[in-house]
């Protein structure tokens, strides 16, 4: 019955979205129409000598332009499994806009996460974006990603996701506290804070401390990173894309690409409309951060050194703020390009507009510009006008096939994320199981569950109340 239901579902999907064989053959024509409808879009289709599909890359011009003009130069890359008939892997490169929303840049499709596939994807990404100053990549600790970035983007800085790094520490040392301390050290803005957390980690678990040092603090900590990571410490923006495509990842490849294009079309339209209706000069997310920091200014003492330099005191600590250079000794100002609470307190002394201290990344006009170029739709294949040489191109099914068995609907959940509570099936109480239960069993009476107070066990051999068949004195008595 399960196989029959599975084949029925696959047949229904093929009627709605087309078969895998048909969409592979239409992939080259789809890429041509996509570039015609959205000039500047970059696509790349790679096939083997026998015509079998290898790789496909897609980066829409609206995303390319928006990232180059309006986004912080931090890209999160990740790979996720496809759940269709031929399996494979989808590669994702995403950024984050000034309103802390996911900003997709490029998508790729290949056989698996290996050195060749990641190097090909990163080369296509470099061809689409060109040279980006102070570029930072964030990923998990996959060796192929690190090798590809060092080869294709030698001028960029590769960092690792502090959440994934913390999960690796939990799995390796079976302790959550060491991962929490490491996360605090990774998010520290000053070396003093970083050293304090690392000393705490060293005293708590020397092995975890050595593991963090061997991994390279310049890869997972904010304060030791050669370039700015801003407020992006994880690959959550890439994981969000994978979650949005949970259903679409089982569809044929061309249908998946069209699903992504349609999703981005809606995102760009809706976010452009929302950005135009924002009431502040900053984005809503940046304005919220500034307001929380402004609340702390009321308790700070500000002393002017000159017109631009101030000494700010609070709770026995002192910081030096330079408004002209946009720096503070707490390092938040220059690392996030957003004024810290000390800088806001100093700006209040000079009656300066807080917006002038923020980078353009966080301003409403920049957000509007990021989504100002709409993504045009692609019509039905029956109306495509494609040159004969492209339409005659042959793209066959890839050699790879997905593994047998039912594919997972969601991602693998680590042991530290599982929140299971053991409960007894005999009495229903938490904290133990039925083998160690000494409570009377539950008795269901309609919607209520009642445990009788006078319950006592009854032997199934002699039918005497007070013991069971395991302790019955007559269990070895021969039956006449």
UniProtKB/TrEMBL annotation:
Q: Cite the SWIM-type domain residue spans from the record.
A: 319-351
Report the leader peptide range: none
Q: Where is this region: Disordered?
A: 400-450
Q: Known InterPro entries for this protein?
A: MULE_transposase_dom, Znf_CCHC, Znf_CCHC_sf, Znf_PMZ, Znf_SWIM
From which domain of life does this come? Eukaryota
Q: Which UniProt keywords are present, listed alphabetically?
A: Metal-binding, Zinc, Zinc-finger
Residue intervals of the CCHC-type domain? 424-439
Q: SUPFAM superfamilies under this entry? A: Retrovirus zinc finger-like domains
Q: Does the keyword Zinc apply?
A: yes
The molecular function terms of the Gene Ontology recorded here are: nucleic acid binding; zinc ion binding
Q: What is this protein called?
A: SWIM-type domain-containing protein
UniProt organism field? Acer negundo
